[in-house]
Design goal:
The protein is mainly beta. It contains no helices and eleven strands. The protein is globular.
Amino acid sequence: EVQLVESGGGLVHAGGSLRLSCAASGFTFDDYDIGWFRQAPGKEREGVSCISRVDGSTYYADSVKGRFTISSDNAKNTVYLQMNSLKPEDTAVYYCAVDHYYCSGPEYWGRGTKVTVTS
């Protein structure tokens, strides 16, 4: 059974940092691209960042470039999202997801972790 479990969300002041983790199990970690998505209240879910299993290339949404960093620890089957210089508009539920299409068509989703950034 494929499982993706996010953690690390919480409440932080603007300008602060959080590190999200996504622990994966039930599949061969190296076989999938893995990424982070978020859904803010009243808004559609959007892609935040993705890392390719093929060559390790990364994608970032324009809104987070220069502030967020995605990384993976293959030994732990875990992907991280380091979020710095957080803004109130980063407030959302953050989900990790996997697919074979560089995060363009997620096949499995985690349940999410909530991030709240106060001004």
